[in-house]
Every structure is written in C-alpha cells, then in structure tokens.
Write the structure tokens for this entry.
Amino acid sequence: MSGVLDRKNAWMGWQTNYLSLGNGELLFYKNKTDSYCCFRVSLFSLSVPVKDCFCHRTRQITLTTNTTTNSPNAGFFGTSFGAELLATPTTVTLFCPSEKELKDWEDALCETQEVIRKLAEEASLIIPVFFSDSTFGRVKVDKYTTAEMVWQTMCNASNIPNESRDCFFVWVIGRQIQLLLNADDNIIDVFQKWEDVEQEYLGARQSHVRFVFRQSYGNTLAQELKFFDKASVGIFYRDSVFHYLSGHFVLSEDSYAYISAIITQLNHGDWHQDFNYMAILPIIAPFHAIQNRKPSTLVSKIADNHHLLKGKKINERKIQLKLLEVLREQKSYGSTFFRAEDELKNRRTALWQQGQFGSCILGINKYGLHFTDVVIEKCESYRHEQIVQWAFHHPQHIWFEMEQEGEERNCEIIYKSKFASLIVAYMQELSPKWEVTREDFFVESD
C-alpha cells in the first residue's frame, strides 16, 4: 500500500511518500525503492482505535501514537520497548488518492489491530524498571502483572532483605509527575493510561514515562536507621544523591563540598593532580550551589575533601553511609517534592524573599511540610502539629495556617501548584487527622 505523508507533519524532515503494513507495524519509507525505513509505528501504540483514525470526507488517515522508534530491530514486543517508553509521541496524517484505497487501508489496519489485540492478551514483554541514578533492571510483565509483583522482582534481583523491603516500592514518573503505585495497580494499564494522568494534572499530554524503584514516601528516619545491609543502603544512597543533585536540599558550603567529593570518589575514582573538577561540576553539585557562589571556591573545597579519600581502600557502603549521615540531618530528608508558587509572596513580610514568580519546592514527609527557596538557599519546615488548619481549593491552590515557633501570631500561606490535588492526597495519607476546614479562602487572581 502507498500513501502521502502530510508535509506539515513530516518527521525529522523526511518527505515520506511510501509505507507498508507488516508485523503489526506501519513502516514509512523515503520512497518505494529505498530499503531504508525512515521510522515505524506500532499499531499497539495508537492513542485511539484504528476505526476512529479515518475521515472519508477528506480521505485522510490521522494516526497519533504514544510511542515511536526508528530502530530497525524494533518489533511489536521487541527488545527496544524500553526505548519506546521514553520516546516522543508523534502524529502523522496520510492522504489517500482514492476512496477505494482509503477503504482498503481501513480494512487492513482494523484487521491487523484486532490480531494485535488478541496477541497482546497472551503476550508478555520486557520493560526497564529504573533506579534513581538511571541504571535499571529488566522485568517481564504481562496483562496480569501488578506493581506488587514488580516490587517483589526488583527486591529479589537487588538482594534486599525481607525486613527492609517495605522501605521501597515502584513509582511511575513522567517529565513532571511522580506517583507511588498501589500494590494492585496493573502495570500495562498504568502505561496505557498515562496520557490521561498527564491531562488531569498538566492539561497536556507529554507521554514521557518510566517505572522507578525507590524509597516509599511514608518512611520514617527511625525505620531507615535499622538497616545497614549493602542493598538497602545502596538504594537510600541513590535516592539521596538524586534529590541532592535535583536541588531539593539547602546545605552549608562545606556540606556541599563534602557530599560532592563523596559522589566524585564513588563515580570518578581517586583524586589526582590533574583532576578536572570544573568539567564535572554540574553532575556532582546542585545547580543552586554552583550558581550562588564562586565555582572556583567550591571546586577547591571539593578537591580538598576528595584528596582525603585518595589512597585508602574505600568501603563503598561505608562512604555511602557518610553521605546519608549528612543528608539525614535535614528535616526534609525522605520527602516527596513538588514545584509550587507562593501566592502571598508580595503580601508577606521579611525573611521569605523568594525568587522570580515566588517559585519554590514543597516537600512532604512524616516530619511535616518543607518550603525551600533555592534562590536564597532557605528552607522553612513545619511539623504536622504546627498546621492549625488547611484547605484545598480546586484545582491548584492550597491554603495553610501554621503556628510559628516563638511567635504569637499564626502564619498564613497560599501555594499554587499543578499538583495540588496530588499534594493533598499525600498529606491526607501521611496524616489522616487533617481535615479540610476552609473552602472559601481568598486567592488574588494573576
């Protein structure tokens, strides 16, 4: 079969004008005689049923996919599925030269998609499940696989002892959204319905999603401190480094240098005279730590700390615990973090002078709530007991009244976030005694 690709949607500059159907895929070629496949689209990845892709009035076929790949080895359930999870959605529009050819396409695609549907019911596939440092394990899943099954597989593969397994679980994470899965969530359903989740929280579909095995948000520090085995400490370390480099902690300059030196030692080896710290600074220190001080001063301190580790037989678990020891002193350690904006920024006084647009990082853990402004490197933390009352105003605003230590007057805070409803869900989960007590609070319009 042949067709003409809409030039407005031409992929990567190719002017594709020939395509074929086989093995459950549409293969797009530069021309009929060229054996090189520009790209291919699995019918399994279509966002809508094939029958809804046809417009007989205009003789157009519009195919929108969740995933794309240009790998010549990428089959229906091929080894490239992990790459497809991270791919970018694509829409192509085809024009058929005649009504008959359009009808032929419709019959062929519908028949093929039905075959694929039946195959999918019996098939299994291999997906990558990532750790926080982007390393990953491969897990075989099928239509019956739940998040708990993936959790068990990852725990077994990572040699995590039974007593510490409850500290970890499977998350599904997009470009901006992070969700802790429920034990009975079906993995295939989660992947296929991810666009709906993005539409709910972001008002747009991005379809960048991965499954991540990391700490559960309900952990307490007391729970973690019970476990010193290599596997558990390794995951605590990976998660902590991820949050550190993501800018979720505010530390002293000496602490930045110390932690960055540990990361350097474990990832890049021993200190030597010609070590180029400036070249790796963005991947061993958070952006705000570099931006807010003279890089050469920070590099000098990192080098001094790194030098102290040289020449010793490094016990990896021991040095990981040293990094954890520093970060566990932070009240926000173990939080789930969200981007938010302080709606009262221009009406509040002193000590909280946030950056542009009042943007901040809001963290939630068993301790309480944490509001971090990385521009001025300040974090304010409130215990659960200090929250007098709070309210959720659909769709994006959360209002808090907080007790302030050493102050007679309470503090009022209003935050705006695309993830307000998700933040509220985490808050209710961590402290069910909280109740929404005020629904009609005032928020100034932008």
The chain is about 30% helix and 25% strand.
